[in-house]
Amino acid sequence: MNRSIKDGFTLLELLVVLVILGLLISIAAPNLFEQMRAAKRDTSAIQIENLGASLDLYRLNVGRYPSQDEGLNAMVKAPADAGSRWRGPYVKKEQYLTDPWGNFYAYTFPGKHNKKGYDLYSLGADGQEGGDDDNQDITNW
Fold this sequence. Notes:
The chain is mainly α. The chain has a single domain (about 40-140), classed as Glycoprotein, Type 4 Pilin (2-Layer Sandwich). The protein contains 1 helix and 3 strands. The longest helix is centred in the first third of the chain and has 52 residues, at about 10-60. The protein is elongated and about 80 Å long.
């Protein structure tokens, strides 16, 4: 079997392909990263809505929202004074109480903003109040 010298690619051809791939990646990567950041913000808003529905179910069963001291952990484990009225867990795993950036959702009872009496929010990627883009607070009010 004789192979000719023309089989395969030259170094120049490989470099041209690598440059083209590099250009495509440099164009596509910023859009991809922005989509990922937007997805985290959207996920946080949906999780807050779902936690709010779980809190409402908790209130229907127990007769009140969890106190500030009990916090969102009352959604996973029954508080001492809930007795037989607690029919949880209302959230299956404690990890569902964290936002997409790994911080626990903030719960304030009594709340100052939400008509239901509690405030539920994420402080965003920076974990501090206020901010823009990824650092923006995501709230239930």
